[in-house]
Amino acid sequence: MHPCHLHSRVMFCVLASFVLLACHSEPTIGTLVHEDSARPRPRALEEPERDETLVAVDSSGVVRLVDAASLELRLGVRASEEEATVVDLSVHAEEGELRRLAIVSQAEEEAPSDVSVFPFTGDVFARPRVVRRFEGVLDVLALSDGALVFQLGEAREWSFVSAGEDRPRSKQCPMPTSVLAVEHHEGATHVIALARSADDTPILARGVIEEGQVARCEVTPLSDPLSEAARAVRLDGVDLTVDTVAGELVVGRLGGPAPAPVGLPFGRVEAVIPLELGAERGLAVVGSEPSSVVVVWLQLEGDPLVSMAASEALGAHVEQVYAGLHRALAFAAGRLFVATSAGLEAFEVEPPPSASLRPIALPDAVRSLRGPLASAPALEGEETGQE
Amino acid sequence: MASFARAWLQLLGTLALLASACDPDGDDTSSPLPIPTGGGSTGGESQGGDSTTGGAGQGGQPAGGNNEGACDTGGPVVESSGSTNAYLLKGTLLLPGGPSEGELLIAGNLITCVGASCSGEPGASGATVIETNGVISAGIIDPHNHTLFNIFDEDDWTPDQTYLNHNQWADNDETYSAVVDAKQYLNGETSALELGCELNKYGEARAIMAGTTSVQGSLGATGKACWRTLARSIDVQYNGLPDDLMRTAISVPSTESAANGVCDDLASGDATAYVVHVAEGVDQTSRNEFTTLGTRSNPDGCLYHTHTSIIHGTALDDAQLATMGANDMDLIWSPKSNIFLYGAGTDLSKTTNIPEALQQGLNVAIGPDWTLGGSQNMLDELRYADMVDDAEFGDLLDERDLVEMATINGAIALGVEPYLGSLEEGKRADVAVFLPSTGSEYGAVLDASPREVTLVFVDGRLVYGDADFLSVTASDSVCEELDVCCRQKFICTGQTGFPASDRLDQTLSQITQILSDALADYDASDIDQSQWDFSPLSPLVKCP
Fold it and tell me: d(Cα B479, Cα B471) in Å, to the nearest integer?
């Protein structure tokens, strides 16, 4: 059913048609790309909010929202009017139904990249609220009122871009390899990331955003002997590192004792995301050389840290990323999605005691999608929160 | 409006001249611009600029100049005025086989004859004939610069510590960060100013005045239509060549797919050069970048390619240079910048191991990097390299080696040698003429400053030279006269006949004024929250 056919949304669609481009046009900046897809399942009020939407990129460079449960394509948006490659993306879920999608897109190799931030709901992508151009290697983190841009170019800098600021003010700060957490303290937003120092040693970088600007960057050396490929996540307030040691996957607490072996041979760590299923906590890790995916279940309060793990080989190659974030994984509707060179692979994730990782057959339209990937809460398509 | 602009320019020139008449002691002036002595004009008409000498900036670079202290010396003369589409140059030619007295014929944008005599060639009929009384060289090729930064110099940033690798200053030096902020603001990366046209043209004017006809200066940036004039912006689509087949990068690829993309382009011929910063620094972290370059692709090693040109390579050890040699790779050397950053400006050993590179058979080109601690232009960089060679390498490089590093070797490193880099029939007419020196023919290049550069052609167009030659520039050129260290010159920064939006009709005075005003405004505004001011612009020429 086309969302514009729903009575409750008629007024909204009329307004949107004026404010935005027509619902049925080809995807361009801010253009709606509706699909004839089923509405997402209503979310029970008592059900804890979890990500139900997969965000991925189709072969024509349109960022697509996918209902991760039904595997149906929903909205799409093109980052730029040009044929551009989506280099990175990030979703921030606001309170209510409003989301923000930040996209880094690059028209051609060597060219500067555009950072665009699109508000969206279940029904519509608004026109980008922010479009800024940067040079160098870029990653992006969507935040509540803009996006943080990580830049590796003439300098290594973080810049905050928002609709209200013509000129983003940057601060020297290393390119993160993982974003651990976003914290809010006394009106400031703190973004905490794992990065590498100028001398290629592991560090924690804390960028502080105040009054719409990156006000400072604080760097703390880490004693953890992490390789350049190591990644980190925060899970239930615990900062965890994932790395390989002597060809084996290891998971540790940042600043803690020696990391625990998972008991699985592993290549190079490419991407890590946290998993929360009911009371169970774990990590999903995708690696290259060889390309495989592992789910590791953890006892955050206990010892040993690692309780169970499951692994699956991937059918295609996982991109190796050496600078910056790598968004090759997303977890939505209890399913793990992995971006490979041949498209998406997906797995049904079961927590302990079965701790299984079962491949899912994807429809062609979903299987052909590419990274970068992200996840987002369910999209209800309500008018509330629409800008 | 035009007459007002011209009057304004003339007023500026007059005031500048009054303020800074030629100083025989060589002290003085911080004017960013060699003093304009005439109004802006289109080609083919001399503005009759005042030949009063004038300073153009402070010294500080290794001294160039074959005729220092003299305001009027010999130089080229027009034997017969003719077409501005064909020039017959007479003088000492620096040919691939060595120096030779003879003639060179430019017809359209090509060199159509090089030899003892070209007068009988079909294209010579009606050509403007010039007795250069000098040394005629292929236009100098700068294979490594960051042109948009070249309004700054070491007055704006001189590190207070010695670094071991490039990340250390890129990450941690607040003054450098403030310079980047200022450049990004002017370039429109963080503002609506969009002065990328003026920044590039200012940098290329600096290059042209030093006989440099191609500049690889846009790493990671897309070209703009306004970059068509002045030197070739050799690494973008507006390079005046049939294609842009150059891939440039400020660091090794950050992803496997990016590395593979370059490999594919090199294998298919879609790229004829991959020009990448590698191993800039003196520590193991820097050295590791070369290993990374070899392992980032799938399969490993495809970026160790005969068309890969490594910029800097300062940290490379003998084994790595041997790997480069085995793969027939190229090296681009920037000694002054290396020693500025990694040797406190004095430790001449903190640069690339050129003797070993040559031992391994590498093609070595030379480029200044930028004016932020690098040389002000290619001629200064050549002299600096010569000094390092004498002091550190036991005078391994002779004058011809150095000049070839700045011409044909640069063309090879950038993959444009079918078109550029030597005086050969069929190549593009990028030519520079120098006053003779008291030494060898090649010494004329090594000894020269912009003052001794008497004629510069890019793609057959006369764009810089002694003021007398303004009358034989193309009629659609936008030129003006200026004083360069006591020698009257002209420079053509623009061309008429293009859409106004391309901003191709700007004179150097206009370009300079726009940038000066914008930088002063930036310094004065609260946008610049740094403690540093960056005005004035770095002078285009620093006279001895």
Answer: 10
Chain centre distance of CA B56: 18
CA distance B529 to A187: 22
Q: How far apart are CA A263 and CA B100, in angstroms?
A: 74
Q: What is the pLDDT of residue A379?
A: 73
B183 contacts in A (CB within 8 Å)?
Answer: 154
List pLDDT tens digits, range A96-139.
778 899 999 998 877 888 999 999 887 788 888 778 888 889 99
User: Alpha-carbon distance A12 to A34, whole Å?
Assistant: 15
Q: How far apart are CA B267 and CA B301, in angstroms?
A: 13
The structure's pTM equals 0.86
Q: How far apart are CA B198 and CA B148, in angstroms?
A: 9
Half-sphere exposure of A184 (CA within 13 A, CB side): 4
CA distance B258 to B263: 9
- Alpha-carbon distance of B442 to B429, in angstroms, equals 20
Q: Closest approach of chain A CAs to the CA of B172, in angstroms?
A: 7
pLDDT at A36 > cutoff 80: no
The whole-angstrom separation of Cα A308 and Cα A294 is: 10
Structure tokens given for A88: 């990175």
Tokens representing residue A171 in the block: 């601060």
Q: Which of B180, B190, B288 sits opposite A154 (nearest CB)?
A: B180
Q: Do B529 and A174 touch (CB under 8 A)?
A: no
Size of chain B, expressed as the number of residues it contains = 544
- Tokens 């029939």 identify what position? B425
CA B448 – CA A344 distance, rounded (Å)? 61
Tell me which residue in A132, A156, A170 faces B181 most closely, judged by beta carbons.
Answer: A170
pLDDT tier at B35, thresholds 50, 70, 90: low
What the block records as the tokens of A348 is 């049904």
- How many Cβ atoms from other residues are within 10 Å of residue B19's Cβ? 13
| A321 → closest Cβ in B172, B192, B254 | B254
Nearest to A172 among B171, B249, B285 (CB): B171
DSSP symbols for B280-349: -BSSHHHHHHHHHHHHSSSSTTTTS-TTEEEEE-TT--HHHHHHHHHTT-EEEE-HHHHHHHHSTTT-TT
Q: What is the 3-state secondary structure (H, E, C) of B22-58?
A: CCCCCCCCCCCCCCECCCCEECCCCCCCCCCCECCCC
Mutation test of the interface with chain A: which of B149, B187, B189, B342, choosing the one with the most A Cβ atoms within 10 A? B189
Report pLDDT digits (tens) over A301-330.
Answer: 888 899 999 999 999 999 999 999 999 999
Which residues from B are below 8 Å from A173, CB to CB? 171
CA dist B204 and B322 (Å) reads: 35
Q: What is the pLDDT of residues A184-201, one digit of tens each?
A: 999 999 999 999 999 999
Per-residue pLDDT for B61 more than 60? no
